[in-house]
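haha ok so turns out i had the wrong file open the whole time. this is the CORRECT one, sorry everyone. sequence first:
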Amino acid sequence: MNRTLIIIVGVLVASAFTTACRGTSDNRAANVSENAWAVVDGREITRDAVENAYRRTRDASKPLSDEETMTAKLSLLNDLIVQDILLAKARELKIELADKELDTAYDEARKNIPEDAFQQELRQRGLTVAEMREGLRRELLTQKVIDREVGSKINVTDQDVTDFFNANRAQFNVAEESYHIAQIAVTPGRDAQVANRTGDDATTREAAEAKIRMLLERLKGGAPFRQIAADYSEDPESAPRGGDLGFIPVSRLRQTPQELRNAVLGKKPGAVSVVSVGGAYTIVLVVAHEPAGQRDLSMPAVRERITQTLRGRKEQLLRAAYLTAARSDAQVVNYLARRLVQSQGKVLNLELASPGRR
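then structure:
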């Protein structure tokens, strides 16, 4: 796909969710339609919604096996379930999205994309402008819920910062000019150990390419790098740390492959680059750049770095706890997952996954 169009793919994913849920009187199987693949607190998520989401987001030039296709659809269904729960929470909290906010997000999604290319991309994915805007609205609302329920409740005190500095004083003595970097790794083969929180593992070159596109869109949509790395990175060492690799001396960076050097050396903090070597991908984030010397708490940059580190840790924990609790509190029946388990992973005759045809 043309890289100038990548920015709208995440919005296309969101817009595919627009018609995902519709109400029913309750979530008992007797009242569930044959088209339901899941039910959340009495609201159906239909097979059609998942199929549309998959059709609008997949790369048609990269054929997948039946198992890979169904894995992608199952992942989309799980995303729809979480989104439905968060949208219900937005209604409960009376969280709304101003038209101006939606207009700004829509303009940002289209920025630097020629009109003809934009319209062609919409047509290829069977998407209208109205559907795209509605998908954006839903995504922004779910982010507002997370911001209110998670972000607003995180507090890092001066004592927290001081305690962290005292416990990690050695790492603030920079013997050589260094770059603090983080990574999200995606490999095209099956990994012996998957340490990310979702258990996600791309097993083919095509799946790795699709996964990288999805992760970049989530990052562009504002998702924290640490969170995405912990959820999806396939590096078993750094994934549990949110992709954090710490400070790497310039002398070591100069010994790495040129692609990685180019992604780090000379880049400003906040820069994100994609490195591709042999079918494997790495999203590299430059967290900080430090010249040699001793740092202390009198330096604003040191306090800010510690504050952001501690805030990131707390946010990662609280967000995971919040989403886990929200899903646990909801009444969710995933008919697709249930049927796949019952059929021992067979993906033929998927209409049997509907509750009315068990």
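The two ends are 40 Å apart (CA to CA).
again sry for the mixup
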